[in-house]
Amino acid sequence: MNVRRNAAALAAIGVLAAAAPAVAAGPSPSPKASVPAGLYGTSDPTYDGVWRQSLTLVAQRTLGYRPATAAVDWLTGQQCANGSFAAFRAAPDASCDAKTMVDTNSTAAAVQALHATGGHDAAVTKAVDWLKSVQNKDGGWGYNPGSPSDTNSTSVVVGALAATGADPTGVRKDGKSPYDALATWSIPCDQDGGGALAYQPDKKGKLAANADATAAGVTAALGKGFVAQTGKAPAADACAKAGHPTPAQIADNGGAYLAAAVAKSGHLMSVMPGATDQPDYGNTADTVVALAADGRTAAAKKAYAFLEKSAGPWAAQTGPAAYAQLILAAHAVGAQPGDFGGTSLVTSLNALGPEPRMQAAADKQAKASDGSSHAGVWWSVGICLVAGIGIGFLLSTRKKQQS
């Protein structure tokens, strides 16, 4: 997830050549962009506004909350007329044009969020149609329309397709599906990094193992999006050789690679150029989801235990997307996000923007306001019965007195 979020910033300055997992930077004020009402977080939204809002809404729905109307309206207001989303549009009332830097990652994330919140079928359909229209000939997607396909972008689009009930295998360009693309980025078992997925081939066509891309690829190969639960345990712990791996083999081989990567310390390390030697909390959270989805429960719980012990300060510094990632990791392993190392991920996330409501409470209020509450109906019936009995009693008494 961190690669996809930071890729927007790299693309904006024209240096998106090859991405690597990144430790998310802390909030940094910007003289160019202010945080609009309805958006979660306080940092500059230029490069991650739609992404962090989408993750927040998905996390809230996963917890059983109904997101605030203002938060959902902010996200729907970011959509372009053709269905696509940019990372952030400071003037959403203005029409999108050729200069609007729409991207597949923001669009696919928004699809998952708006589908989860419900009631936005038209917006979701337009966004999915746009994603299908910019699919590359290899079956995958790049960050921006027309850019070379990569594992992360392809995976988040697969997540959007799966979330809306579409079968990714049926979404094809020149006869190739996204799973064909993922198979080409899956490193053969007998090579360095075997089982992992590469972000994309280098200029010579070589594949280099990338843990963040692998986590994204595993969940996509399993037909999952941001939200996943513990799946069936794989048939084997080791990488299984295959000339053109099936989606299940892509997932199991990638899961084996990730399990080995976190076996010793419980976390991944940051490999972004220039980064200090430190844990990569965001990609570790994504790895928890991938491992759980692939049925590697022990490895997933070990990585989650590390996050529970160490990731609190990172989330507090990074903001809503980080809290959402940790909530989704907790959901994947069946942990309680309300008690995360002594703090509540739920309270911390909800405090960063418009307050959501629990779904049950929201439904109860809605029924009461539209007169459809069963309790309200029976209360009215009861009042009428009492009134009728009272009137009958008075009439009966009056008749007796008259006689």
UniProtKB/TrEMBL annotation:
Signal sequence interval, chain numbering: 1-24
SUPFAM superfamilies in the cross-refs: Terpenoid cyclases/Protein prenyltransferases
Residue stretches spanning the membrane: 377-395
UniProt-recorded name of the protein: Terpene cyclase/mutase family protein
Domain Squalene cyclase C-terminal: 107-155
InterPro entries assigned: SQ_cyclase_C, Terpenoid_cyclase/PrenylTrfase
Any single Pfam family the record assigns to this protein: SQHop_cyclase_C
Keywords: Membrane, Metal-binding, Signal, Transmembrane, Transmembrane helix
